[in-house]
Every structure is written in structure tokens, then in C-alpha cells.
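pls design
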């Protein structure tokens, strides 16, 4: 049975301080106002300066922590040189614009992630409500659940500083020299469109972002902007990109703790989603909405933030089953989508 080996146990750095997890690689942690209440960020020695990987959410206490860290680490002789952001989610890109302006540095980021961040920041959401409500009604939301949709519209700019107008693009297979070490970009998909992970072969270190976490599965969701997407297929396929890395790679994830046991964790993530696909398929023995499948997959109460991730993940599993021909979709006159086991399948084989 898979069990990660945590580098420091479950000790974490206090806000505004760091742990050196490897020579020249420092771990810092910032708070988040969600059930998942923290994000791990990374400070890399970069010759005559520093590189930061991910920034935290745009909140005053996180800015204050960065000022504390800047007073300790950044100087005229050894300044911050660049900011690398793994993907566009607010806990990762949230303070990138502020930090670029504050420290006079450039943002490095995948094109698709930068584009999503820019679009999300500039969109106040006012034109989305009807379409978004229709999407969640189609998934089986009742009136009480639908009432929560309005609070989700246009929230991005409230927790993200302005996204820089220009950036340096990073892509699959790029090699970035950081302090004499080469970090290769490995792109993951499914959790976000073009998630950048950084792997240093000499040090055997993987900055995995949200793509590989030691304890929880990264959220893989269908969202109203792409209502027929199959992100789970993308996620499972992209996990294969990490299979060639050594099992004694030190994995630096965005949540929880640095760990060893990468290959076991990749297998564990695949097995987890196979089990969830089985459970979703069973729930579709009779015509089932996304909400019916959600209740089959999750057995707990959700706050508003968690509810939308849970329905998105439930739909991701249903859509993958549909793509594989194991469930069929019917849309009733009211616009609600129902999914049922395909007449062509008699069992949910391993996926």
C-alpha cells in the first residue's frame, strides 16, 4: 500500500520563514482562506539572485510575509530575478503581478496559463450568470444550490493582483538555468490547462505544483466555460510523463509536505480515479444527474467553495465514462442532463 515518506515529517515553516529542503532550495508556506488552508511556495538560489516559484493569494498578510522574506533574502547584491508561476489558479498566480511590480522582475509562465489568468482577471462575470446557472441546473442543482452560483461569479479579481501585460513563456521540455542547475519543464494537464512542473535531474528534485500531491488528489473538474470537456483523460495521460523519473526524487508539492515515493504516488492516483470511475458508473445504473453522482462519490457536507469543486470532479468522471462509451447522456426538456450505463457495457472494466 502506498505511503509517502515525508522529508521533515509534518513540520512546516512559519509564515515569513523558510526551510532549506535541499542546497539552495527553500520551502515557504502561505495561508489560504479555504478549507485547504495553505500553499507551499519555493525560493531558489539563482547565482547572484533568487527565483521564486508561485506566489500565494492576494491578501495583505501574504504581502507582509513577502516583505519579511525580502528583508531577509533579497538585497541590491542578490535581488529577486524572476517569478515562475506553475498555473493560473489564484493561490499560485495571486500575487505575481504585485511582486513583479514591487521587485521589478519578469513573470515566467506557460502561455495558456497566463492567458487564462488575464482573461479571468479582466472578466467581471456580469455576462456569465445565465449560462453558468444553466450549466449547474443541467448538472442537477436545486434552488438552494443554484443560489450559491451568484457568489462564485467574478471572484477572481478579488483574490488576484493585476496580471502583468507581458511575460516570458515557458513550455514543455524547456530547460531553465537557475543558479547553474538545469530545471526542465514538464507540463501536466487536467487540473489546469498547461500546468508547469520543474524537474532538476542533477538534484533529483521535482517541483510538482498541484499536479502530484502526497495525500489528496488534485481537483480535476469540468467547468461552465468548457461544459463538454474530458479533463480526467488529460490528467491520467499526463501522469505518464513523470513515470521515467527516479523513485527517490524529492517531490515538492504545493500542498501538504515535501515527500519521497513519486512512482508509488503516481500509481496511487491512477488507482484512485479507477475506483471513482467504478463508483460513478454504479451510480448511473439508473438515470443519474451530476448531483446524484456527487452524492455517490462524496459523503460529507460541503461549503460553497468545496461544492463547486465536488460537482466539477463528479462531472469529470461521468464525462470520462461517456467518452469511453460506458455511459450515455440524455438531456430532458428542462435542460437537465441524465447519464445511464450504456446498453453496450455489462460491467465497469478497469479504465
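designed seq:
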Amino acid at each position: 500500500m502506498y505511503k509517502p515518506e515525508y522529508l521533515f515529517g509534518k513540520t512546516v515553516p512559519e509564515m515569513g520563514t523558510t526551510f532549506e529542503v535541499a542546497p539552495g532550495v527553500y520551502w515557504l508556506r502561505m495561508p489560504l482562506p479555504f478549507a485547504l488552508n495553505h500553499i507551499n511556495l519555493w525560493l531558489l538560489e539563482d547565482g547572484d539572485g533568487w527565483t521564486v516559484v508561485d506566489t500565494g493569494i492576494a491578501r495583505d498578510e501574504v504581502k507582509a510575509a513577502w516583505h519579511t522574506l525580502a528583508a531577509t533574502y533579497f538585497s541590491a547584491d542578490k535581488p529577486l530575478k524572476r517569478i515562475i508561476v506553475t498555473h493560473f489558479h489564484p493561490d499560485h498566480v495571486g500575487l505575481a503581478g504585485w511582486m513583479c511590480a514591487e521587485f521589478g522582475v519578469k513573470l515566467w509562465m506557460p502561455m495558456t496559463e497566463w492567458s487564462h489568468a488575464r482573461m479571468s482577471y479582466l472578466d467581471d462575470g456580469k455576462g456569465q450568470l445565465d449560462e453558468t446557472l444553466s450549466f449547474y441546473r443541467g448538472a442537477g442543482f436545486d434552488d438552494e444550490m443554484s443560489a450559491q452560483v451568484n457568489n462564485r461569479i467574478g471572484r477572481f479579481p478579488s483574490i488576484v493582483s493585476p496580471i502583468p501585460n507581458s511575460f516570458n513563456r515557458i513550455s514543455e521540455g524547456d530547460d531553465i538555468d537557475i543558479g547553474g542547475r538545469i530545471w526542465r519543464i514538464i507540463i501536466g494537464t487536467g487540473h489546469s490547462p498547461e500546468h508547469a512542473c520543474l524537474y532538476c535531474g542533477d538534484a533529483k528534485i521535482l517541483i510538482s505544483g498541484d499536479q502530484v500531491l502526497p495525500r489528496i488528489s488534485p481537483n480535476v473538474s469540468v467547468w461552465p466555460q468548457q461544459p463538454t470537456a474530458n479533463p480526467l483523460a488529460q490528467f491520467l495521460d499526463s501522469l505518464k510523463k513523470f513515470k521515467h523519473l527516479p523513485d527517490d526524487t524529492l517531490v515538492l508539492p504545493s500542498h501538504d509536505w515535501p515527500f519521497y515515493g513519486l512512482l508509488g504516488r503516481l500509481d496511487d492516483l491512477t488507482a484512485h480515479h479507477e475506483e471513482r470511475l467504478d463508483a460513478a458508473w454504479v451510480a448511473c445504473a439508473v438515470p443519474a444527474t451530476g448531483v446524484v453522482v456527487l452524492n455517490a462519490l462524496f459523503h460529507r457536507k460541503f461549503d460553497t467553495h468545496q461544492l463547486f469543486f465536488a460537482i466539477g470532479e463528479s462531472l469529470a468522471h461521468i464525462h470520462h465514462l461517456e467518452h469511453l462509451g460506458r455511459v450515455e447522456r440524455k438531456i430532458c426538456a428542462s435542460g437537465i442532463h441524465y447519464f445511464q450505463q450504456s446498453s453496450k457495457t455489462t460491467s465497469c472494466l478497469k479504465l
